[in-house]
Each structure stands twice: as C-alpha cells, then as structure tokens.
Amino acid sequence: MIGRGGRILKHMNIKPFLWGGVGYPCLELLYRGRTHPSMALCGAVCCAALCRIARGRGPLPLLALKGACAVTAAEYAAGMLFNRRHRIWDYRRLPGHVQGQVCPKFFAVWYLAAFGVMAAVRSGIFPRPRA
C-alpha cells in the first residue's frame, strides 16, 4: 500500500538527512578525532527534526529551545541503544548528567547548533518541498 507513504515521501526533503548524516560525524571527527556509524543516523534524524521545527511559528530562540530538547532526546535514545557501555561517548564525569548519556553542557551546545541550523532553514538553505 504505497498510496499514503508515497505521498509522504513526495513531500519530504532529503537534504536535511544528508546534511545531518554527513555533517554531524564530520563535526565529531574535528572535535574528538573519532566517531561511530550510529552518529550518522542520529545526525540525520536530528537535522531533519530541526528543519521541521524551524518551519513552525514562534521566535527563533524558542524554536531553538524546542530543537535542543529534540536533539537531547535523540542523543539519549541513541545512547540507550548504542552506547550502554559508554564506548562512544561518556558524560559521567560532567555535572548534571543523566546515565552518562546527556548533560546540561551539551544541551547548551545543541541549543547553539539548533539556533544556527534553524536560522539557516529560515534563510532558505533547506527549501520547503513543493505541494
């Protein structure tokens, strides 16, 4: 039954998935010198979510806060799926961490990243798909 799914795919924009799936692992390589294949999937999902949230109504700082929450939730989910033994990342030494998977320091980083991505979306880098 392709009908509904086909219509949904027709309206999707693949660019955010590609930017996130390639961009996030590259940023990790620059920052930490290593990454993990699961980070490409997480980056793709997060970038697509940020682009979707950016198209909502409201001031950019509030949308970026929603985006940071979405990215932190995705980071936690990815951590519980792929990082149970803390071999990919480990926030256990950082204050306020939750099971070593997420922490306030990186929530702030995700807020700044979300703000940047959403500003780019609003400027037209990721155009809306045609109806």
Helical residue percent? 55-70%
- Poorly predicted segments: none
Q: What is the count of helical runs?
A: 5
| Average pLDDT rating | 88
What summary fits the major beta sheet? Answer: none
Radius of gyration over C-alpha positions, nearest whole angstrom: 16 Å
Give the count of structural domains: 1
Task: Determine the N-to-C terminus distance.
Answer: 21 Å
Q: What is the string of helix and strand elements?
A: HHHHH
Counting helices, strands and paired strands, the structural category is mainly alpha
Shape: globular
Question: What is the fold's blueprint, element by element?
Answer:
Blueprint: H1 3-10, H2 15-32, H3 37-54, H4 60-82, H5 104-123
What do these coordinates show?
With 131 residues, this protein is mostly helical. It has one domain. Helix content is 66%, strand content 0%. α3 packs across α5 and α4 packs across α5. The longest helix has 23 residues. The chain is globular and about 40 Å long.
